[in-house]
């Protein structure tokens, strides 16, 4: 199959057709920050952090396929400013207090803030007050730390096949729910497999018993699982 | 054990303690499953029946008819919920379970659709529906303050019903009565030139069973 010629950050790259901008960039050692993207899961472009400059337009690189002659900027001033703003909005929307969080030091949101140089939040915090759901015997969810990336929803649906996690409501009140928004411990479709815990990028879904900064996750297990399944 | 009792907020000091207890004689999920729940779940798949406690037998019949009508059609959920709400006046959670089971959809997706659209309500509407206008003219004239006062006095959020079942509180974007701003509508009656106090006086007379004359 003919390779496509694309230009990323001034570098000319030959790319296989059908790949996304993010895939091509990663294959060539060009780093694009991501949050909702996870190898092994379907891409949905939910977090908007992987935006790149494509002829002056901002598109999510995880859902945009490469085309011949594309000129893409992954680190332009505009792109970086937008990424930082998006991150600030994520921080302002929840209660992300790292020093009290189980995932402190192992949090993808925290890593992104460091990487993108977000040192302050310029919008007012919403101080959302969600209640912690600790009804499950092994896991808990603190929705104040949820960034609505939808990884738990997708892994539950695509990999585990249980369809326990879903989105409810809309706009500013959107949140993840289990079954008919019942307490997690009583959700009948949940198999307690724990994949949602491993893929959650923040401390929102965590193992019980983990204290401050003790939670470490293994989101890469999904890629390994899907790869092994494909191999049969 | 501590975790199962829901008391696991204090981190265990001993790392071995932190792992959930594994007992090979227990089922794979340590979640306590009531025998009845379990039977019910397996039974749905065989007989396709879920207990619906809400509503009358006649409503139950209509519910089954609606589901039958749309079974097998692509993307039936919104239409089914629409008709089912027509049957019950709202969407009781056991009815949502029934719909999910019959249409073979995940529970969370059914709940997601039912909460996404403003049209669907999850609890029964009250005797009177109070709609406070928040359109431009009413907003400028203090519609938001009226809403806030009503929310405080009735103790309910927008879209919910008071515990006594008397009022359902809603908001609207315009009744086409901007000349009377700020306005609210109780059932079919429009009340204009309101103040928070005046709005509460009107609702209180509804509470006493009298209907004040319109603006």
Report the radius of gyration of chain B as a whole number of Å: 24 Å
What does the largest sheet of chain A look like?
Answer: 5 strands, mixed
Looking at the chains present, what oligomeric state does this protein adopt?
Answer: heterodimer
Order of helices and strands of chain A: EEHEEEHHEHEEHEH
Would you tell me the overall average pLDDT of chain A? Answer: 95
Number of strands of chain A: 9
Structural class given helices, strands, pairing of chain B? alpha+beta
Estimate the global geometry of chain A from the Cα principal axes.
globular
Terminal Cα span of chain A: 27 Å
Topology as H/E string of chain B? HHHHHHEHHEEEH
Average predicted local confidence, pLDDT of chain B: 81
**Helix percentage range of chain B:** 40-55%
Count of the separate structural domains of chain B: 2
- Rg for CA atoms of chain A: 19 Å
Shape of chain B: elongated
- Our count of helices of chain B gives 9
Residue stretches of chain A low in confidence (pLDDT < 50, at least 5 long) are none
The main sheet of chain A orders its strands as 2-1-5-3-4
Characterise the protein shown here.
The complex is a heterodimer of chains A (232) and B (215). By secondary structure, chain A is an alpha+beta fold. Helix content of chain A is 25%, strand content 15%. Chain A is built from six helices and nine strands. In chain A, the strands form three sheets. A five-stranded mixed sheet of chain A has the order 2-1-5-3-4, with helices on one face. Chain A has a two-stranded antiparallel ribbon with strand order 6-9. Chain A has a two-stranded antiparallel sheet with strand order 7-8. In chain A, β7 and β8 (175-178) form a beta hairpin. Chain A starts with a strand and ends with a helix. The mean pLDDT of chain A is 95. Chain B has 215 residues and is of the alpha+beta class. Chain B has two domains: 35-116, no CATH class; 128-207, Glutaredoxin (3-Layer(aba) Sandwich), CATH 3.40.30.10. A four-stranded mixed sheet of chain B has the order 2-1-3-4, with helices on one face. In chain B, α4 (77-88) runs antiparallel to α5, α5 packs across α6 (107-116) and α8 (143-154) packs across α9 (196-207). In chain B, 22% of the residues are buried. At the A-B interface, β7 of A face α5 and α6 of B.
